[in-house]
Amino acid sequence: MLQWIMFLLVTGYAIYLFYKAVYHRYLYMSLGRPVEFRARSRLSWNNWGEFLSQVFGQRKLLKDWRSGVMHIVIFYGFIILQFGAIDLIVKGLTRGGHLLLPGYHLFGLSQEVTVLLILIAIGYAAYRRYGEQLPRLKKGWKPSLVLILISSIMLTVLLSLSLERIWFQLDPSLYAPVSSLISLALQSLSTSAAEVLFYLFWWLHLLILLIFLVYIPQSKHFHLITAPINIWLRRTEPPGRLTSIDLEDEEAESFGAGAITDFTRKQMLDFYACVECGRCTNVCPASNTGKPLSPMHLITKLRDHLTDVGTEQTGKSPWQPSYAFASSQTATHQLRGLKNSAVAWMDSSLPHITDIRPTLDWQSAAWGVQDQSDLGDARAAELELIGDVMTEEEIWSCTTCRNCEDQCPVGNEHVDKIIDLRRHLVLMQGSIPQEGRRALQNIERQGNPWGISRNERFNWTADLEGLSVPTVHDNPQFEYLFFVGSMGSYDLRSRKISRSFARLMLEAGINFAVLGNEEKNSGDTPRRMGNEFLFQQLCQENITLFQQYGVRKIVTADPHAFNTFKNEYPEFGLEDVEVIHHTQLLERLIKEGKLTLSHEVRERMTYHDSCYLGRYNGIYDAPREILRRVPGMELMEMKRSRENAMCCGAGGGLMWMEETGGKRINLARTEQALEVSPTMIGSGCPYCLTMLEDGVKMKELDVRTKDIAEIVELSVFGEALA
């Protein structure tokens, strides 16, 4: 009876503490803005399939197959061992009884094998963290505590089962191989001593299990609960679509995220779903080149700040039992006086192509708990989100490449949070780097980032000898509108891509037209830089223009414009318009025989995947299929290609801003391309091509850079004619 009473009291108290920790964090998330979810899309087969593949198939984790397999063993091992935990509790409460299961001996075997596999997996996890010392994995007592707790749970299971065998004088069995071996080693114990020790380890097992239960919602292991919910509630619309702002909302006090409570509840769920695995930071082009931004720390810093603000505004302690964390009630998280020194601190050459350690070192030095006595009368809610939590250098370091989101195993979305922070900086504070401000002003005045006259947009056609590119006025019955874009219209290097593609369409007999000087900027740059007002203005003007000329199909060589038209314009009224990328059209024309690749292009080629073509829109095969069909072409893949391709550094408006710290992103990406010893580097994006060409020039190497359209032109017309 005493055993039962103690069991119920201890277990009930632990469950109560677990509930309080979860509920208090739920209250913190409730401080955010509500967000609507479409129930029908949640119940679709596609959503179910994606949910099951990520949660139970561990698809994202298997991107790193070694840690993925390790995690699968622990994940499914814990599921299997829940039944064993219940069985062990029954044994302790009934003095030797067990669950009435058919084939109980096989059940016992599965438990022991699972315990052994988990111990091996935990050992490998410790080796990865402290043996291999992977930079992305945090060291210290917190991650060590989890390893110790899990190992202790496993060891107490084995010792309890072994002592049970001695207590009841059970013979060794192949169905209990591990406990049988341990019991043989302890066979000198008497049955009464074995009984006492059984209950000692039984209680240890129970207490450690309950400690882990209470610890889960107060640590990164809260992802065990929040990650499945986060994945279920993930965005079902295209990943390339940002959430729009209602600029006509007269009740809106501000735009963007200027305070932690400006984020939505779903965004706050991201904070508590983070497992701090560092996979996002490991692939981030900013983190890889010594910039201050670390996607993992972005999430954890916002989480810490939300916890501090939530504690103040709800009066509910985040730590349970609260009396054990009394000192935590007088402290808050804040940047340690390094608001404006991030980039300068990073300004050093890196010994490898990429290295995340300088960024991680800065984050560790910059962020931490500040005692309330050092903050005076300041409260967490009064700290500036931009300044005291996130630096402007971090916010402007993001290239919006989405590699962090592609790698995240719990479905966190990083880019939307950074864009919300930028929106507040630009729309509410007017704070933006000078080069970015100039680019936005030029787009607003002349429709392009350079500020060149609108009347020169159509000048790119001047060098097309003997060929005429029709405008919508010349050919009002066009099938395709060729949207050239600002890069293809004004940038001298990108003009060659526009001419090559136009020449190929004329050769293939495509009925197309261009807007000429009437063409405007797509609005991608203003939107990614946080100027939602300018984006929506350009969006409406472009849609009106498209409708005026009856546009039904748009083809463009610019992946940024492609993504904007395809994924974002429909929300503002662009309907029944097919948007395709020029590599998709070229692939189709080649397959249909309208373009004949008759000339050899003897090059050792490596192809760079544009972020806005690949991760944003899943187009990986079309450009590669074209390259494989080119006679004489040898295609080599970089280590980081397709879904894991590293950004060139031009996205998110960074094309128009100067990198002031660390290593240049385009140089790092060029060096990755050069690892496969190419004679030519290819791309399907004018931004990427410009960045890679600049990188090759910095390396002073004789390696050519070509767009897919230029390569096709070489094969169709030959080197001399092209």
What does this structure look like?
With 722 residues, this protein is mainly α. Helix content is 52%, strand content 6%. Strands 4-3-5-6 form a four-stranded parallel beta sheet, sandwiched between helices. α30 (686-699) links the parallel β9 and β10 (704-707). Residues 339-348 have low confidence and may be disordered.
Radius of gyration of CA atoms, rounded to a whole number: 30 Å
> If helices are DSSP runs of H or I spanning 4 or more residues, what is the number of helices?
31
Uncertain spans? 339-348
For the record, give the distance between the C-alpha atoms at the N and C termini, rounded to a whole number. 91 Å
Number of strands: 10
Question: Strands of the largest sheet, in order across it?
Answer: 4-3-5-6
Largest sheet: 4 strands, parallel
Quote the average pLDDT. 90
Strand content: 5-15%
Structural class: mainly alpha
User: Percentage of helical residues?
Assistant: 40-55%
- The shape is elongated
Q: Note the quaternary state here.
A: single chain
